[in-house]
Amino acid sequence: MSQLALAPRSSTPRAVRDRLDIEELERLLVAARAGVPRMRLVAEFGVSRNTIYRLLQAASTA
Fold first, then answer.
1. So which domain of life are we looking at (predicted)?
2. CB under 8 Å to 54, separation ≥6 — which residues?
3. Each residue's pLDDT tens digit, 8-27
4. What does the alpha-carbon distance between residue 58 and residue 37 come to, in Å, rounded to a whole number?
5. Of 3, 22, 24, 57, whose CB has the highest number of CB atoms within 10 Å?
6. Smallest Cα–Cα separation from 25: which of 61, 59, 60?
7. Cα separation of 4 and 32, whole Å?
8. Are the CB atoms for 49 and 62 separated by under 8 Å?
């Protein structure tokens, strides 16, 4: 069985979980909440703008 299949499920989308570790995710969320432009976050973290909005939404409801 692959490592991906064994990875615990969470509210974080699988593709993002593969690209960002916990520290990077926290940095992304802090920067987004601080008003860093979304397109700068897209370039820095390699995720889509839509993904950033989804992560912010998931973090606000958690």
1. Bacteria
2. 13
3. 555 555 567 677 888 998 99
4. 19
5. 24
6. 59
7. 27
8. no
- Token pair of 30, please? 């802090």
At residue 60 the predicted structure's pLDDT band, cuts being 50, 70 and 90, is confident
Q: Give the whole-angstrom CA distance, residue 39 versus residue 7.
A: 29
Q: Which residues contact 45 (CB under 8 A, 6 or more apart)?
A: 19, 20, 24, 28
Instruction: Give the count of beta carbons closer than 10 Å to the beta carbon of residue 3.
Output: 7
Report d(CA 15, CA 49) in Å as an integer.
14
